[in-house]
Write a structure and sequence with these properties.
The protein is built from twelve helices and twelve strands. By secondary structure, it is of the alpha/beta class. The strands form three sheets. It has a seven-stranded parallel beta sheet with strand order 3-2-1-4-5-6-10, sandwiched between helices. A three-stranded mixed beta sheet has the order 7-9-11. Strand 5, helix 5 and strand 6 form a beta-alpha-beta unit. The chain binds nicotinamide-adenine-dinucleotide (NAD) and 2'deoxy-thymidine-5'-diphospho-alpha-D-glucose (DAU). 2'deoxy-thymidine-5'-diphospho-alpha-D-glucose binds next to helix 6 and strand 8.
Length: 350
């Protein structure tokens, strides 16, 4: 029975990763460690949280003593580290939250793993989940490869780049068994509605303006979150220690084209006259330092580990719209902050 610590499991991607591991690996004992920030929501795991192999630990990765104690108590065999502050716009207004959680928090986990494994690394793994934003911004052509130089542009991406460097440094210096993946933009159910796609779906549903930064010319490479979870599975089980793998959907969309595609789907689903939702598009002030284009070359992962995305974007987008329309209560509670009140009552404010 392998004991696997998954950090950030109450968040968007983490909850899909936990569901994937619980459903595919009944022999693993999964520990979900999450402090439940505004982005953490245990409702995301309602369907699996009664599983006997699932455990929740409410803890803050910036608390070194607590993290060390938890590693001593549970003696985890492996870590899949997703906990992070993840929203670029918030990193512009509150960079220190990103520095504490993404950099100091990652260092605390590395130190705890190193101490408990005590250089007996047989069967151990520290898997760090990162982002393509560490590579900076592309022009009109080219792709991010695993050896593309780091050039982060926002406090968020700089904090993630810093955490990647720490993970590699612990491998080089202490031989800690690590693997890193850098993924492009995810979309799907359970994403907090501060990110472009769920924010737009929520606004379209409520006939509110859809804020498009600048002229909507920026390009992102979108991957369905369930496919990110299956890529993490492939890398966790078959990835080579010390290596980095890029994960992406080979699916580039200009923001404005994506929003138009979304508006068309929403018009159809809500029985609106074609063009109604697109009428909500509103161009607003651009994000400071807004990266122009991200595009991932994931051929290393595809060729060496046999992973590929399972869905076409149009199908994934429609599934995503269906999820949000079917989960209006979830969306309402998240937007109204009611779920935070619930957690405070349920788990206390600490
Ligand atoms: P999210 O914001 O939805 O979830 C983050 C989770 O981490 C939340 O549950 C939150 O409560 C938890 N957390 C935050 N600070 C914590 C702390 N100090 N201690 C313990 N838990 C804490 O994020 P996401 O979009 O699911 O991203 C997960 C990971 O994947 C992040 O590391 C992010 O950098 C990376 N990533 C995200 C994307 C994307 O498109 N969303 C793409 C590539 C990589
Ligand atoms: O590339 C991976 C990254 O993708 C992850 O590491 C981040 O955690 C994740 O948040 C995401 O970052 P982005 O900044 O690309 O995602 P976001 O959804 O915030 O924005 C997507 C694009 O849409 C971006 O070009 C900014 C634009 N945008 C965003 C919002 C929220 C708008 O035009 N209007 C908006 O209201």
């Amino acid at each position: 029975m392998k004991k696997i610590l998954i950090t950030g499991g109450a968040g968007f991607i983490g909850s899909h990763v936990i569901r994937h591991f619980i459903n595919h690996y009944p022999d693993y004992i999964i520990y979900n460690l999450d402090v439940l920030t505004y982005a953490g929501n245990l409702e995301n795991l309602n369907d699996i949280d009664k599983n006997k192999n699932y455990n929740f630990i409410k803890a803050d990765i910036t608390d070194a003593t607590l993290i060390n104690d938890l590693f001593k108590e549970h003696n985890f065999d492996a870590v899949i580290h997703l906990a992070a502050e993840s929203h670029v716009d918030r990193s512009i207004s509150s960079p220190m939250d990103f520095i504490y959680t993404n950099i100091v928090g990652t260092a605390n986990l590395l130190n705890a793993a190193r101490a408990i494994w005590a250089e007996n690394y047989e069967g151990k793994l520290f898997y760090h989940v990162s982002t393509d934003e560490v590579y900076g911004s592309l022009g009109d052509t080219g792709f991010f490869l695993e050896d593309t130089s780091y050039d982060p542009q926002s406090p968020y991406s700089a904090s993630k780049a810093s955490s990647d460097h720490l993970v590699r440094a612990y491998h080089n210096t202490y031989k800690l068994p690590v693997v890193i993946s850098n993924c492009s933009n995810n979309y799907g159910g359970n994403q907090f509605p501060e990110k472009l796609i769920p924010l737009a779906i929520n606004n379209i549903k409520n006939m509110k303006p859809i804020p498009v930064y600048g002229k909507g010319e920026n390009i992102r490479d979108w991957l369905y979150v369930v496919d990110h979870a299956s890529a993490i599975d492939a890398i966790f089980h078959k990835g080579k220690i010390g290596e980095t793998y890029n994960i992406g959907g080979n699916n580039e969309w200009k923001n404005i084209d994506l929003i138009h595609a979304l508006c068309k789907i929403m018009d159809k689903k809500l029985n609106r006259k074609p063009g109604t939702s697109a009428g909500l598009i509103t161009f607003v002030t651009d994000r400071a330092g807004h990266d122009l284009r991200y595009a991932i070359d994931s051929s290393k992962l595809q060729n060496n580990l046999g992973w590929s995305p399972s869905l076409e974007f149009e199908e994934g987008l429609e599934k995503t719209v269906d999820w949000y329309l079917a989960n209006q209560e979830w969306l309402h509670r998240v937007v109204s902050g009611e779920y935070q009140k619930y957690y405070d009552e349920m788990y206390g404010k600490n």
